[in-house]
Amino acid sequence: MKKIIGLVAALALVLALGAWAAFRSSPAVQDAVVARAAHAAIARGSQMPAADDSLRVLLCGTSSPMPDRAAAKACTIVVAGGQWVLVDIGPEATENLNRWRLPIARIGTVLLTHFHSDHIGELGEFNMQGWAQGRRDPLQVFGPDGIEQVVGGFNAAYAPDRAYRHAHHDHGKGLMPLAAGEMQARTIAPFKAGEAPQGRRSVVFERDGLVVTAIEVDHRPVTPALAYRFDYKGRSVVITGDTVYYPPLVAAARGADLLVSEGESHALLDIVAGEIAKTGDARLAGVLRDTASYHLTPVQAAKMANEAGVRELVFTHIAPPIPLRPMAVPWLRGVREARPDGVRLGHDGLTATIPLDGGPVRFETLRE
Ligand SMILES: [Zn+2]
Ligand SMILES: [Zn+2]
């Protein structure tokens, strides 16, 4: 038996060496391998189902501003019928969308919760990618007071890029029309910069059965800051954006099927800050500790979910990062006691399918 195993191993080695020699010496073999790999990547297509039988949510970025190799910054997609809506577009998120081969040219609407860099950093890149992949109309970017400045700034920064790409790829045939490359800012009233939050709500749009409502939250000194609620054919999802525990948000999330909530473990963050302080960088330690004043702890989020009577709670904007699975235990400390069921940690690629027939929420993960 040992002899046979040895012979098979030797044969496999000879074959592998032969294949490597053929690959290295033959451009034709190399090209065939490239074509095979490209075909496999392209043929996979989007894994997000198109059927109008569910309200769907995809976490396309789940990290906080702290570095996390496994996760992009803030990004969530809601799909209702044929409508794709993006909520926040933080750094690295566009890469996720492309790797999952999502039809990003179909995403014509972006909602920004607020203008911290981890929520808007990749707006220019996302817009350019959707345009290059065939979007025919300008991206509509909704946000509170200040959205004109943010969108105008990205449009200005990307003006040379738009001109290059139009000159190179349009071929005079309208293949990359300049007008579709420039984003349009849409201000959500009545929230004004500098005003203390008052827990107001405002319908952003109502389209083919999808109602999107903005909810004022408390992320001071960031004003305005918004959460969003999506209602579609009797099912609903609420995305908190960044906020402290805030009773008006609880009221607005009442009865939602899914609450996608930010979470920051202040206890773990304090430990990290303490270690940074030991290196002599008290300034950075202080910056980190400052963030506890305007973010939700996981336990507070669990209590909000309970008070609002939501079915499922999923964490995103996870701070500090959880590099190893066991570290979820201290991050979630106290959460299971507050909310034993219907709670989970999010990760990039997690999808929630909320069936329109009233069935339970299903969770899956997109493959690369
Ligand atoms: Zn923020
Ligand atoms: Zn944030």
Q: State the helix count.
A: 14
Q: What general outline do the C-alpha atoms trace?
A: globular
Q: Hey, roughly how much beta strand do the residues contain?
A: 15-25%
In CATH, the topology of the largest domain is named Metallo-beta-lactamase, Chain A
Order of helices and strands: HHEEEHEHHEHHHEEEEEHEHHHEHHEEE
Number of domains: 2
Question: What is the average per-residue confidence, as pLDDT, rounded to a whole number?
Answer: 94
How far apart lie the N and C ends? 40 Å
Structural class, judged by helices and strands? Answer: alpha/beta
CATH domain class name of the largest domain = Alpha Beta
Q: Which strand order spans the largest sheet, edge to edge or round the barrel? A: 6-5-4-3-2-1-14-15
Low-pLDDT stretches? none
Bound molecules: zinc ion
CATH superfamily of the largest domain: Ribonuclease Z/Hydroxyacylglutathione hydrolase-like
Number of strands: 15
Largest sheet composition? 8 strands, mixed
For the record, the CATH architecture of the largest domain stands as 4-Layer Sandwich
Radius of gyration: 23 Å
Helix content: 25-40%
- What oligomeric state is this? single chain
